[in-house]
Amino acid sequence: MTIEATAPGKIILFGEHAVVYGQPALAVPLSAVKAKASIQRGSPGSGLRISAVNLNANYTLQTQSAEALVVMANLVLAYLNSPEPDAILTIDSTIPLASGLGSGAAVSAALGRALAAFLNKPLDDAALSELVYQVEKLHHGTPSGIDNTVVCYNQPVYFIKDKVLEPFEPRVPLQLVIGDTGIASPTRKTVKAVREAWERDRSTYDAYFQAIGEVVNQSRSAIEDGDLLALGALMVKNQELLEQIGVSCSKLETLIDAAQRSGALGAKLSGGGGGGNMIALTMPDTVDAVAAALLDAGAVNILKTVVT
Ligand code: PMV
Prior knowledge:
The relative contact order is 0.17. This protein has about 300 residues and is of the alpha+beta class. Strands 1, 2, 3, 4, 5, 6 and 7 form a seven-stranded mixed β-sheet that branches. A four-stranded antiparallel β-sheet has the order 9-10-8-11. It has helices spanning about 70-80, 105-120, 125-140, 145-155, 185-200, 200-225, 230-245, 250-260, 285-295; strands at about 1-15, 25-40, 50, 55-60, 85-95, 155-160, 165, 175-180, 265-270, 275-280, 300-305. It is globular. The longest helix has 24 residues, at about 200-225. The site of (3R)-3-hydroxy-3-methyl-5-(phosphonooxy)pentanoic acid has 16 residues, from helix 4 and helix 5.
């Protein structure tokens, strides 16, 4: 018998970086890409063996490393008060790595869900999210917790670190095109750069974060009112602020420009920045033109998604 569990990718619509400093953010699951974990019984005495297909790597729980998958498996076993099972756990993911789509959180979430189900002790979303957050902390330094939250709850959320977790519903579907710069940019790096800049000049950076927080609240209203024109303009505003805090890059800006010139209502980077992905809001009849323009401008991959 094989047990399978999945977790989606995610995109941050508004509020990345400022969310680390207590401002709200909006994020949605991205089911076009996912992490999948499957687990089956192993031979007696084999212990738990983890195979990461994308990384072409195999681990046991005795692996002396801070490898995220091993850390997550150990956390789940400790939380469930369970001895190490004899099992083979395989992780596979279609979520691009280090590109702002939540691949790390999704892989941990899928692993946690599959392992807990195998042990007959399923984890609820809140418990799973907390365990994934522990792993994120090892890898990000100071994560806000938004990635693990969206990926584990698998629904659009309005999020304030340690305070608010509210689902939200768009009044009209949001048609998004996601363009990948092809530049790998670990979140940890841009989060650290922003922290250093904030430490040098707190008042300027606090003002940027606050301005981003206001954009997030206005965006939530625009989403709930179905005001796509206002929402597009707010994406442009959020992107300007992200440029000011120093997490954009020229390839992101080339793609954002291309999207806007081909009819997108607005566009911005999504996630940690410095590379990774950008998102563009389109109408249903402009989605293909925007996708084509992004590819022309050098996007290495395109995803289309509708947020409902
Ligand atoms: O790069 P991603 O998709 O993991 O998003 C990071 C979002 C940040 O706000 C930059 C960091 C965080 O922990 O919230």
